[in-house]
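Entry: Calcium-transporting ATPase
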Amino acid sequence: MSMKHSGTSHSAEVHEEHPSQYMEKEEDTPKTDGFFSRLWALVMRGDTETAKMEQLKKELEQQKWKDPAPFKYNPGELCSLIDPEDFNKLEGMGGIDGLMHGIGTSTETGIHFKDHTLEKTMKYAGTIEQRTNVFGTNVLPARKSKGLLLLMWLALQDKMLILLIIASIVSLALGLYTDFSPPPEFVPCLDPPPGQTECKAPAVDWVEGVAILVAVIVVDLVGSINDWQKEKQFRVLDAKKEARNVTVLRDGKKAQVDVHDVVVGDIVTVEPGEVIAFDGVVLRSHNIKCDESSVTGESDMIQKVTYDEYLRERESGSVKHKSVFMISGSKVLEGVGDFVVTAVGPFSMHGKLMLSLRQEPENTPLQEKLNYLAELIAKLGTTAGGLLFLALMIRFFVNYGYDPNPDGREYGETFMNVLIIAVTVIVVAVPEGLPLAVTLALAFATRRMSNQNLLVRVLGACETMANATCICTDKTGTLTQNNMSVVAGCIGDDLLFLDSIKTEIANAEKDQRAISLDELTDRLPSPLRTLLVEQICINSTAFIPAEVDESEQVVTATKKIPWWGKLMTLHRSKKESVLEKASKGEIFIGSKTESALLSLVRRLDWAQYDQVRTSASVVQVIPFSSKRKAMGVVIKNDDGYRLYIKGASEIMVGLSTGVILVQESTAGRIQIKSIDEATRTELGRIIENYASQSLRTMGLCYRDFDVWPPPGASVDDAGEVQFEDLAKDLTVISIMAIEDPLRYGVPDAVSACGRAGVTVKMCTGDNILTASSIGKQCGLYTAGGVAIEGPVFRQLSRNDLMELAPHLHILARSSPEDKKTLIDTLKSMGEVVGVTGDGTNDGPALKSANVGFSMGIAGSEVAKEASDIILLDDNFSSIVSAIKWGRCVNDAVRKFLQFQLTVNVVAVVVTFVSAVSTSDESSVLTAVQLLWLNLIMDTLAALALATDPADPKSLNRKPSRVTAPLISADMWKQIAVQSAYQIILIFVLYYRGMDILNLNSDVEAVQLYNKMELKSLIFNIFVWCQLFNQVNARRLDRHLNIFDGIHRNIWFLLILLVEVGCQVLIIFKGDSVFSVKPLNGRDWGISLVAGFVSWPLGALTRMCPTAPLERLLIKLKLMKDPNALPVAVPNEDSDTVSLSNWNEPAIGQIAKQIGAFSNIRGGRLRASNLVLKNNAKLMRENNIHPHAIMAMVPAIIGTSVGGMWKMGQDENSNSVKPQVKVPASTLFRQGKIQFHPDTPTDHPYLLTLQGQT
């Protein structure tokens, strides 16, 4: 974000208040906008996110304390009002009047944004442009995106590409020297020029170096262009971030302005449900109450009052939970009012949080494994090349020593050939297609994921999800629809109904007598429908706000919007804010219970709520009171007066003496029966049944009066009848059961996670009964599962947490800190954790998790910034898609590895052996042929294997452990068998092919031609083996069908056809460049049959047992044990005794050993499934010697008693006392740790808590 700086000097007053402005001005640094200057900066200080953040902080700090002219206060002074809240500073500014004067605005007319409105007094000076120059815009500074050239340079930092570049330079130099240094080389040929017996050799040695450079450029371009497109995609995403309009006061008129166009000094109007996007000070408040928990962690509602009200409240000493400041990121729960904006963008609380979350991502498990593998292969390749060079140089010096007449030129060319062969081996060994395969697989997956409502912000996150073993998910909005709805109910006492979502969920409780909610219209007589409609619509305060008047003035920001930003505004995202949906008539604003009832009327198309409400003649309104737990309204109708009342169902039934009869009611009149004991019992049973499912029940009743006010009723001074005189002798209309229902498909998604080996844990702020009910319905709370509340969770010690975590299914009433603690505990146990979050204070948990999912609709911008993947539909089912695509990425990389390593092993062995075994130090495959195989074909193969679509069957296998090897035993088996087959085949043809194919001749030119034909045949066979093996590599498991789903990947088929076409073209037209000759039909038949053998050979290999090979590889330490359990990672918050609490180092060391000894020998850890080694070995590794510890015990006791020694106290022990830890067994006995009702009595963890381990 570029800001114009004013040249006016700062006032003396500000200099006195902010001495930091006397800091020395930094030397002017050149702008780093150009490629070369940015490249220089990159080389000098590194292109780290940390350096960028430091530079950004410097720029913001300079702008914060810059000269604010023509205003009185600079951004730093205004920020200090809110962070932290400082009412005294506001007083020091002169209160509201002083603040408004200082930022050039008026409480009555707002800011003036037109120059001609500035009066001579200049009382309210400052145009919008001036305000943006001084205070900034409400847009965070954009990340500096890298240009294509810079991305290409960064891609060239890859070690493998650097090696290739060096090889290309050497090869090109040697090739030019060989081709163009006199005298020219002559070779035997079938048709020599007249008068000569040989032909001049084609000058094509330089092609090797050029081919390598071309290959490097191809790999570099593909990778960097993909990164550039990714950066461009995120720039577009930033441009279309949820833009919404807010109401501001400008020039005395209210106008609709985009939230990003609001500037300091604007007067903003707030309404219930709005999320504050800027910091400010309240001007007018009509009972505004805000939820600031997502910003400050304060769980209580904060009442917003005006400056004068706060002064009065302060004098009376009752300012708790009251404030004059509006904080960005908070939500308005109720009330309306206006406030003046004092900080926007990076200077607001919200902006500071967003900027603090920008950091450099860590390497993912796959990236770590690939880096290790690439370095290992590069070392092996370099070793092979070095050995080949050494062997050939020994021969070179031996021949030179025994040659009586050495020719310097001949031996110089021989040395060049040796160097070329050695470099070629290194080039062939390095898996240069590997980074491309990873990039292509990730890019393909992320694009497909975006079509399935998954926006990947961190590219490596999708492959991390492949190994996810646990998902900690929110309830509201993720598992449920975040929209309270009527899901069940009873009309009268006999007409039960259920919503379709309840009938489709296998785990939901159902009453067989209930009808579908959609059938309710046909089953209800017209008078009953009218009765219900009037009760719901009139006795309600929820509403849909009027649509925004498009003719109202909209002021755009002075900051220019790029062309791609304007393009995105033409196609506004479907993910709209709550207020936008409400303005379009999609949702109601108000009480969730009333909104659910009104939604029922609209869903069944019974009436238009606003028409029913406006046509009613309201006599008296009885507002809701938490004391009476009811609300009502009295209307005048044709028969007199009618009271509609709704409230807690058990209270309503207790006040009722009658209930309507659905079947007996006709079109003429509603029939009623008295409530006898049996009816009251039945209604009570229905209410209890709904309550047991954690449904919120609402009783709807009415009562008719002939006259108003009723005879004998008490009337207050306002002429209103007392509630107690009205709320009796009621008639029950209906019992409505309300719930935030599950999303469609969530139970199936949870079941799919179970099959995939991924456990799902619910972390919610709701109470444990509601959470348990939803958990049972969606299938994540099952037998053996534990439900616990946050306050209890915090009392557990670390060892108890580690024992509880594997069995924990529901964490209710949890805070974001609880969620982060659970995530850290699971990660320390070796779990790969995915977590969902939507609030601002979910940022730490999202960052802590291996993969963070934020909500695209309900999520805050802070949560989105902290997350790796955004769920555009807020649906849990989309997480299952992320797991599926993550496994697709991992599989694509493994498929390519299985293919590439076979090529590399065969090429290196064949090149090495053939070069060493021949007298002319030449390989059976030329450098250009090897480059076609190793670079071009592998690049195409990477693209082909990376584009396989996600297979739903991949969810039927368990996730791989983080420590599992990248190349499995099955893959090693295929690589070994296919490599051995190809090596044997090539060596047989190379050493005995002339005899087998009867190609020997006494004519030197014919013999040379036949040798060229044989080498062409070997090259063709090698290529066709790879083409067939490319199909074979699509299968990583032991199933035999290698063609499964191949028809769904059109890219694979097209690329395979391209490779076949290129190979045919090379054989017929690439004679001089590729050193080949056209082949006849026999040779083509041999090539195709040799390649086809790869398929049955692969099938036979899969049928062979893998376990013996796996045990052998593990024993030889060539492969890590894939079934090894992870070792728990120690945590700073461990229960071990801290050395800082001991006065003497020696005592501290003994204390440390005792602590570790107790952990190793302790009963709780012994029962844990995390113990991987025997106790004796663990103690040896921790340098613990029990006999030494026991020998010290008498001395410790004696000296401590005799010398009055005691444990040292922390200097800050009086500041904050840690929460007392309570053993899990004690909490279980107190009933605070709850097991699922179907948990067997012999469950291990249950027995542990019962002390029966």
